[in-house]
Amino acid sequence: MCIMEKDKKLRPLKIWEILRRETDEDHPMGTEALREKLKESGYPCTRKTLYADIALLNAHGYEIMHTRKISNEYYVADRSFDIPELQILMDAVQAASFITDKKTKELVGKIAQLAGDKKAEVLQKNTVEFHIPKSDNEQIYYIVDKIANAIEQRRQISFLYFDYDIYHQRAYRKDRRRYIVNPLSTVFSNDNYYLMCYDDKHGNIGHYRIDRMDDMRIELAPINETEESKKFDSSRHKRALFEMFSGEDARVSFQADKTLVDHIFDKFGKDVHIAYGEGNTVIFSADVQVSNRFLGWCCSFGDMLKVTAPQSVVNQVNDFLAETAGQYK
Q1: Residue 210 near residue 145 (C-beta atoms within 8 A)
Q2: Is 37 helix (H, G, I), strand (E, B) or coil?
Q3: How far is Cα 264 from Cα 226, in angstroms, rounded to an integer?
Q4: How many C-beta neighbours within 10 Å does residue 156 have?
Q5: CB-based contacts of 273: which residues, under 8 Å, 6+ apart?
Q6: CA–CA–CA angle 196, 240, 284 (5° rounding)
Q7: With 245 labelled, which of 26, 56, 178, 195 sits at a CA distance of 20 to 30 A?
Q8: Which H or E run contains 294?
């Protein structure tokens, strides 16, 4: 096959690439401008050939619109995402603390380009930086990719896990001994990205922050399938898990001031059943894991929220309050 024959076959794709990247309904491209760009890219063509290529693209589902003026003007209007959708995605990336500053800038730029060159510039100019603390773990993409591959291959993973000391230096847990777990899924919760996994050593479902992992490896050993891991349902487990802190599962009943309804839905989701109680109160129940973070949340509303059952959790709230108050005596 000679070069010219190859060029003829690739030219329609080049036309689509140029129009999709550089045009929209507000910025069409005229016939001569399009021919000039094709020529600069090494794909010269006549007007007749250009019309035929565009007709071919339209016939195969690549929708290219055109308006008739002195000469035809072409543009691509139908894109995978609308501008408001792209803005939401860009804001979400900006707000995600587990994505590093470097990756945030790269992702925001890539998302903006989905709108085409013209609108990408406007989108990025209108993007507001959130100025929230960002992770400095540049391995996050690599780690997420490894986890996904391990789940697909049904193999165990191992990694080092760290906290930060007062100098913001990594302090590795277990004296740098590796954690070996059976990966189940990943989940985003409360501004952090977590791995859900089954831990053979402790015989339970574990949770680890992905931005605190280092030196991730896919092991040769296959995933150890236990009865608990086989029954694992990530959506159910996430609902039962309260703020990613482990604790004893419990069905807890509450009484709250009705002005807290928005907070209740924000915390427990739209499916929580809320009923009117006495006076200006509402009552509801939710499945939670009782932890110090949960107890702290219960106390954060003062006399506007009260745990009413079971008695064992009521006692834990009272003990938590007494211990907290004792620190200030």
Answers
A1: no
A2: helix
A3: 35
A4: 21
A5: 284, 285
A6: 160
A7: 178
A8: helix 292-299
